[in-house]
Task: inverse folding
């Protein structure tokens, strides 16, 4: 065992003996603000929490009248809800640690008109995105039309600037130039290796279990590691501890049911969810074409307040996906499943403002793929993680410290001609993630992460820094934010990036005694609230990446030759305008970006059992996920209990490699050169310059109409929608082998029903 | 709102082109050339194959193709078509021309559609005629050898064969006995250095032409070398650069026979009579 690892383990054991801790999972408050009488939601209402000790946090309700305030310290708060033309309401809230409080309120209309400026002053940064971070609330997901009445996080993510998907099947997501295997997706802290279903606009977990999600397009803090592009950190709802709640939904793509019940009133809740696809059964009638994909997920969470000072949550998630990624004539069956389990114990001493948390997670993914008849590939990965988190809460400043250890096991078999590989790797490390309020206008969040690995894989020391500047103090209409950090990825995912339908990924340790994949992020953003209902934001980013594994293809059709080492740069600017006026919500986003890879020298990316090759034919190229122009528009308009949603997306064409054609390659042997005249040869493909051409542009309009029937104990939602309203034939893939073009979903009408019981 | 709709309309129009161009423009008419020019053959052959846009598609037969080669002076030779049966039973297109390429000459082979829509061109230069630079023989009676430099070579030869013309073992006619040296030797700045193991070869020759030992005097009429030399295209046959408007392989083999004079003392040491 390396000496550094021994030292780390010693430190971990010693540290584990101390009663340290806090939680990254502090309290949260969410709720819906409605108009008294009609019950219509009040978008833009001001919600301010004032701590007994003087701290203040605030936000505005969204288009659905919903709000969310997260990471609140335990304590007593004064809650003030105000809105122009309505009577202000105040209340007192007592928040325990790890507690999720739902606070719904109705405001009475008032003759008295509030001063808008006062309302503005109460709004701080909550709800605003800062330097790559977007806090996603469940209500935001409902703005995105889906062929499913229960909505989904994946569909929402694709409305964010800089998030690129190559198509509506396959389940890959590229974030600001990073690849799908460079994203870290956590559900209650558990890493999910394949977090999207085979039909790509569905996450591996349903939306209605989500409490909120922190989505970092880059610049994430030191608490996160092991990936170099982005983080999606999903916190699931704890479930009701007072009464049985539930929901079920039926829609042409996916149907599901969720139940939450108190196991012990006020103390223990249990939430379960099951989703199952149905599209494979009805696609021939609905779409006029086969959609041979089957997928689903099961989720279970138990949350308990053990006593006045401690809580426990246990989360389990199981997903499965299977389908034919080829054609009816040339089938390429693919399947994968995730199994993820974790528990988290949180402890809050009576006397100290120090929270501690101990968490253990286990995540496993099994995947199979048959790229050709009689070629069965398999790749499995197991990850076991332990974490001790400590948070010191010092007024408006915080220090989070973490100690963690990981055990990973990989097994992959690439079929005939290769040997199966089983390999394990152990790592451990520490991090400090802090937040200091230097002045009322300036906050910095420095952090550092250190991790060491076994098997000769190089460790890393990764500094991080985030900063927030409010030039006009708290409540400033203008906000500047920035993030910088260095990121390393010692566990790499290798897949065929040229074939968008091929999601088979080999997870393996980075090459020993070699530089590991790494990235440096720099993000600078500014947000300006021009009016109470209009906010503009501009964010520029640069990701400098090196030591990436990139697939190289030779002259044998449909065969991956091996992996080479590249370095890359992703840079771009995201522009966003958000209009939020009572019943009307509109978000427009535009991304101008460029992703550029360069073959590195030395070019070989050596992974045990996986072929490596030298550099490709072009020094610099745009990889297949480079989308220079992207436009997203999301609109929601509500009239009473009816809301209309629309989303339009445009993305310029993605790069691909043209071919010069197929031919019979004949090996001429100078000893027997005349044999070439009658040799039938082997079918080869001649490729043009790597990624030298682009696919057609992508654009699509989706719409939906929801009508809600609200009863005292239930809400029934009827939804009708159309995906791809003008039936744009967006290309999904072009099969060079057969010369067949496969398009994404055509016009898909849908109707759905969901019933929520509370 | 009107501005938003205008932007959407403009972008939709901008993105209206929904065609994918899977082939590199201009590659549709490409031909694949497989063959070589041989200085020792009176008829030259090349096989031509059409590019296919789909791997699953049947091989297209060539029609209306005009194949012509030009030598360095611009003199043209027309190639004629013949159909051959491939080893898998299907038909292939082979073109042939009755000429013998000259050493060091550059030839250009063009294959054009009769309507002029596409043309594939391959240029190949025959290996030049080398010269032999023998050094003084070395070694004693049992180990006599001679280093012979094949001057002008820049790459490994395909094969070198030392040729012994001998006479005097009962037959009136001289015979030529070849000793295959393969591609042994080493590349030097001046050419290819081959150690000719004269004594070993003598033993081999005598054992072959006079196995019963009845003939006492065997005369060495001449000693020479057959050089089989390759053009640069053979260095990396999968990545040749001499074909435009197509791909494949077109190389050249130069087969040349050269002689040198072996010193009389060495001839005698070997046990031959010197008839050079």
Result:
């Amino acid at each position: 065992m390396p000496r550094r690892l021994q030292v780390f383990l010693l430190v971990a054991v010693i540290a584990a003996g101390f009663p340290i801790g806090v939680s990254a999972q502090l309290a949260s408050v969410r709720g819906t603000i409605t108009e008294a009488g009609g019950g219509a939601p009040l978008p833009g209402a001001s919600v301010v929490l004032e701590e007994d000790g003087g701290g203040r946090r605030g936000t505005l309700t969204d288009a659905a009248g919903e709000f969310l305030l997260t990471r609140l310290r335990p304590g007593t708060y004064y809650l003030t809800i105000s809105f122009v033309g309505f009577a202000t309401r105040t209340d007192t809230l007592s928040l325990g640690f790890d507690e999720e409080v739902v606070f719904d309120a109705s405001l009475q209309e008032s003759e008295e008109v509030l001063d808008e400026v006062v309302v503005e002053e109460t709004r701080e940064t909550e709800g605003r995105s800062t330097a790559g971070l977007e806090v996603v609330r469940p209500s935001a997901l409902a703005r995105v039309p889906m062929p499913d009445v229960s909505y989904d996080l994946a569909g929402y993510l694709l409305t964010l600037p800089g998030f690129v998907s190559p198509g509506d099947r396959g389940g890959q997501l590229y974030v600001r130039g990073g690849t799908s295997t460079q994203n870290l997706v956590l559900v209650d802290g558990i890493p999910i290796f394949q977090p999207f279903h085979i039909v790509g606009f569905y996450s591996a977990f349903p939306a209605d279990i989500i409490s909120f999600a922190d989505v970092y397009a880059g610049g994430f803090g030191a608490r996160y590691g092991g990936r170099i592009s982005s983080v999606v950190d999903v916190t699931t709802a704890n479930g009701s501890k007072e009464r049985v709640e539930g929901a079920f939904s039926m829609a042409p793509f996916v149907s599901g049911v969720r139940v939450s019940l108190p196991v012990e009133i006020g103390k223990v809740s249990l939430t379960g969810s099951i989703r199952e696809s149905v599209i494979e059964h009805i696609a021939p009638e609905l779409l006029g074409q086969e959609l041979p994909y089957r997928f689903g997920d099961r989720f279970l969470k138990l949350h308990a307040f053990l006593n006045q000072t401690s809580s426990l949550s246990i989360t389990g998630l199981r997903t499965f996906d299977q389908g034919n990624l080829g054609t009816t004539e040339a089938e390429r069956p693919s399947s994968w499943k995730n199994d993820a389990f974790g528990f988290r114990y949180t402890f809050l001493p009576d006397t100290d403002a120090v929270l501690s948390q101990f968490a253990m997670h286990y995540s496993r993914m099994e995947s199979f793929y048959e790229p050709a008849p009689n070629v069965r590939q398999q790749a499995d990965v197991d990850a076991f993680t332990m974490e001790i988190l400590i948070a010191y809460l010092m007024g408006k400043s915080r220090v989070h410290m973490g100690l963690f250890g990981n055990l990973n096991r990989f097994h992959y078999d690439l079929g005939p001609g290769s040997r199966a590989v089983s390999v394990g790797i152990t790592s451990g490390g520490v991090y400090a993630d802090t937040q200091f309020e230097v002045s009322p206008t300036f906050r910095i969040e420095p952090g550092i992460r250190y991790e060491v690995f076994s098997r000769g894989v190089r460790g890393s020391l990764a500094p991080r820094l985030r900063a927030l500047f409010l030039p006009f103090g708290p409540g400033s209409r203008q906000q500047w934010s920035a993030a910088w950090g260095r990121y390393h990825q010692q566990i790499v995912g290798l897949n065929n990036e040229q074939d968008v339908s091929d999601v088979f990924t080999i997870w393996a340790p980075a090459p020993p005694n070699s530089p590991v994949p790494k990235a440096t992020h720099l993000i600078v953003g500014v947000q300006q609230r021009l009016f109470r209902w209009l906010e503009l934001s501009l964010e520029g980013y640069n990701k400098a990446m090196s030591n990436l594994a990139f697939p190289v293809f030779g002259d044998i059709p449909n065969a991956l030759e091996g992996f080479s080492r590249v370095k890359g740069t992703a840079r771009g600017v995201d522009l966003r305008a958000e209009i939020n006026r009572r019943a009307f919500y509109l978000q427009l986003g535009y991304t101008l970006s460029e992703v550029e890879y360069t073959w590195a020298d030395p070019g070989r990316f050596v992974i045990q059992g996986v072929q490596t090759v030298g550099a490709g034919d072009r020094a610099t190229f745009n990889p297949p996920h480079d989308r220079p122009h992207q436009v997203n528009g999301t609109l929601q308009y509500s009239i009473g209990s009816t809301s209309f949603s629309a989303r339009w997306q445009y993305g310029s064409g993605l790069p691909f490699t043209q071919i010069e054609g197929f031919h019979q390659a004949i090996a001429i042997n100078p000893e027997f050169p005349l044999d070439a005249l009658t040799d039938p040869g082997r079918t080869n493909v001649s490729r043009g310059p790597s990624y030298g051409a682009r696919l057609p542009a992508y654009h699509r309009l989706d719409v939906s109409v929801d009508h809600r029937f609200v009863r005292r104990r239930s809400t029934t939602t009827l939804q009708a929608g159309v995906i791809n309203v003008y039936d744009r034939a967006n290309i999904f893939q072009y099969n060079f082998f057969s010369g067949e073009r496969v398009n994404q979903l055509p016009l898909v009408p849908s109707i759905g029903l969901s019933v929520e019981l509370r | 709102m009107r501005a938003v709709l205008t932007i959407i309309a403009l972008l939709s129009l901008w993105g209206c082109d929904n065609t994918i161009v899977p082939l590199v423009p201009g590659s549709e008419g490409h031909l694949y050339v497989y063959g070589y020019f041989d200085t020792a053959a009176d008829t030259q052959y090349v096989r031509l194959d059409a590019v296919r846009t789909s791997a699953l598609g049947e091989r297209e037969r060539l029609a209306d193709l005009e194949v012509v080669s030009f030598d360095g002076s611009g003199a043209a030779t027309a190639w004629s078509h013949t159909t051959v049966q491939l080893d898998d039973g299907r038909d292939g297109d082979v073109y042939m021309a009755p000429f013998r390429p000259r050493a060091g000459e550059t030839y250009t082979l063009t294959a054009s559609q009769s309507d002029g829509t596409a043309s594939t061109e391959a240029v190949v230069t025959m290996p030049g005629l080398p010269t032999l630079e023998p050094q003084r023989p070395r070694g004693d009676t049992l180990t006599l050898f001679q280093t012979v430099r094949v001057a002008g070579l820049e790459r490994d030869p395909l094969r070198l064969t030392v040729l012994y013309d001998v006479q005097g073992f009962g037959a009136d006619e001289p015979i030529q006995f070849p000793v295959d040296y393969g591609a042994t030797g080493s590349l030097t700045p001046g050419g290819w250095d081959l150690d000719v193991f004269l004594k070993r070869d003598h033993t081999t020759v005598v054992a072959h032409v006079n196995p019963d030992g009845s003939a006492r005097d065997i005369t060495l009429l001449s000693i020479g070398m057959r050089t089989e030399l390759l053009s640069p295209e053979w260095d990396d046959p999968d990545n040749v650069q001499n074909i435009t408007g197509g791909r494949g392989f077109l190389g050249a083999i130069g087969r040349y026979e050269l002689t040198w004079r072996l010193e009389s003392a060495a001839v005698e040491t070997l046990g031959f009579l010197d008839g050079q």
The longest strand of chain B covers residues 246-260.
